[in-house]
Amino acid sequence: MRKKYAITSQDIVDKTFSTKFRGYDTKEVDEFLDKIYIDYEELTRYKDETECYIKRLEERLSYYTNDIPKRTVTNNQEQEPEAMNDSILSK
Fold it and tell me: What angle do CA 60, 91, 78 make, to 5 degrees?
C-alpha cells in the first residue's frame, strides 16, 4: 500500500552534486541532506503506521456497523417527521 514517491530516502543518501568554482560547501550540503534523510524516513514510517491504524479502525467500524439492523421508513413516517422521531425514541 506504499505510494510511489518521486524521491526516496535512498535517493537522498545517494545524491551527489558537482562542484564548481565558488560552489557550495560539500560538507555543509551533506550534513543538510543527512538531516533531510532522517526526517524523511521518520515521516514515511509515521505515514505507513497511520495508514495501518486507519485500516484497523475501518475494519472495527465495519464490524460494528454491519450488526446494526437497517431501519425502514414507512410512507406515513416520510410524511410526518414527528412520527419517525417517536418510533426511534420508543425503541
Answer: 95
The three cell numbers locating residue 16: 551527489
Q: How far apart are the first and last CA of the chain?
A: 43
Amino acid letter at 22? R
What is the C-alpha to C-alpha distance for residues 22 and 33, in angstroms, rounded to an integer?
20
Q: What is the model's pLDDT at position 43?
A: 93
Q: Which residues contact 88 (CB under 8 A, 6 or more apart)?
A: 71
Within 13 A of 15's CA, how many CA atoms are on the CB side? Answer: 17
Query: 68: which DSSP letter?
Result: S
The DSSP secondary-structure symbol of 90 reads T
Average pLDDT of the chain, as a whole number: 79
Task: List pLDDT tens digits, range 35-74.
Answer: 999 999 999 999 999 999 999 999 999 887 876 666 555 5
**Assigned C-alpha cell, 53:** 491504524
Chain centre to alpha carbon of residue 11: 23
